[in-house]
Amino acid sequence: MMSSEIFVPGWLQQLLVVLLRFTLSCAAPVNLNNGTECSARGPASYILVFTGHWSPQTFPKQYPLFRPPAQWSKLMAVTHNEQYRLWQEGAPASDGMRSFAEQGLTVDLVKDAKEARKMREVGSMYRTAGIPSGIGHSSTELLLTPRSPLLSLIVKVIPSPDWFVGVDSLSLCEGGQWKQEVTFDLHPFDAGTDSGFTFSSPNFPTTPPENITMITSQKPNHPANSFFYPRLTELPPLATIWVKRQGRSSVRQQNRVSNHILPEATKPHRFSETPLDCEVSMWSSWGLCLGPCSRGGLRHRTRYILLKPANSGTPCPELEEQEECTPHNCLAYQ
User: Keywords assigned by UniProt (predicted)?
Assistant: First the structure.
């Protein structure tokens, strides 16, 4: 009678143990921090200043002067770790981001951030008052911790379909040290939820929604776009953020920086004027040929100005043209 036990050689047992250990190691959780964890000792306090550079000299095309004039929404900033994303270029906008980009509302974004804070993905949230003109600044103080060393922020361009400027996951910690100062130029982004081309376009939902993309001097490549400047290789900065670390004592003793007092280091930069070329319509059809049969007639056609030139841009061409012709009432005599 044969035994029910199976004999396994020693070398095969060792091989099975090695394979089991290898399988368990592959199943271990993946570290999503990719070696970018902040090992700084203790938190760091910063002053954040947002400065708008949106002027008719730098951005003359369709510059909003009224109903409403050019201005900035309130700024929303979040400190967080890599598990959280306020927004991301190349990714679809969340419902909260859509509400902010189109209407400047922060209710849904705050709600999402509070849920993420329960999961220890978000540290703190900050908001500043809006800026009632294209040039100006707002500011707030930030407190970052090694657990939440990243900074994301957004500000809506007003008026606009769904355009905004912002920063996505800017790290203020490098290895074991907090950065002392960071300056970052901001350019416009399209949230991908509204298909309007101009600052004052009516609501025109994008169906289905597209991903968030940066707006450049030639993208979208359409002359009706408010940021379309084909002579420029890149747009001037629409805004700038300046983040500077504060000493613990100065943060406790000083009041928050007022929205009406601009620190010396953050005064607006002076950018060169952006030339805006004249744009005209297509020619109208030729008018009737009028004139005496003895001398021949003339006919005219016209075009009109679509966009006036500014800042030494190409001047407008002739708006009226004429040529000789044979009057219609003379054809019967030929």
Answer: Cell adhesion, Disulfide bond, Extracellular matrix, Glycoprotein, Metal-binding, Secreted, Signal
